[in-house]
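Table S4 entry, Glycine/sarcosine/betaine reductase selenoprotein B (GRDB).
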Amino acid sequence: MAETRAPTGFASEDDVPIPYMARTRAYYQAIGYDVPYRWAHDVAAPFRPLTKPLAQARVALITTAVPFDPAKGDQGPGAAYNGGAKFYQVYDGDTSQDHDLRISHIAYDRTHTTATDSGSWFPLPQLRRLAREGAIGDVAPRFFGAPTNRSHRVTTDTDAPEILARCRADNVDAAVLVPNCPVCHQTVSLVARHLEAHGVSTVVMGCAKDIVEHAAVPRFLFSDFPLGNSAGKPHDDASQAFTLELALRVLERAPGPQTTVQSPLRWRTDAAWKRDYNNVAAISADELQRRRRDFEAQKERARAIRDSVA
């Protein structure tokens, strides 16, 4: 009889990057949205080599997380998707201070991400440490918040130029961009492309490999972790330090555009966790209907906020 088991030592079928574009498309079709979303796609990327050694470079941090606002509902660990906490304009913050940034406004992996340690999505403390140690020249005086926008046009024509202007005002040499949800990965990819085309070297730290590579970015550090952990494992200083340091090595040493480096760190030995994110095969019809109702309610809430700042 022929052998039906995988040879000893082979990885499981789950042990591949999650296909977020396909999962997201199938999920929204299953809850009643028939027109598939068109993800940003390019076949080439701009590339700006660092113009000075990393140890002399000023590095900016760009995030899709948002400052905690207690007036905007539950934004704590495990909170349901909170459209009321979304932001629609670029913001910045003082990098010399600590900040409480949350991710409840986006579709991170709520099953496998604790959301109890912002160090796993906002590596400012690690970046300041590297500046103290002389690994980078210094941290830019401000970090920048990039709105998670499904519109390619708004990101490319409005938000990315605004972030570029603020980077130039701060004399930034390079930027580290850290997304969380699927659309976040597209957002920072478009921003990275814009910055790179206008003289700022970039590296994206992310978990959605297909989305970032589909958009074609200059440099990408891929961590095969659940969404919401682009900067390392929660409550694991060694993981967070290693992840940022590896991203900066990619920033400094990438030989050309569309360089992807995969982190050797693993989330778990068992890759079965990858089956869960927006997998319609594992969600009942009743649950899909409930999610459609919740999504519509959150869209209305978010639309009211967007209209108020337009």
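Residues 1-6 have pLDDT under 50 and may be disordered.
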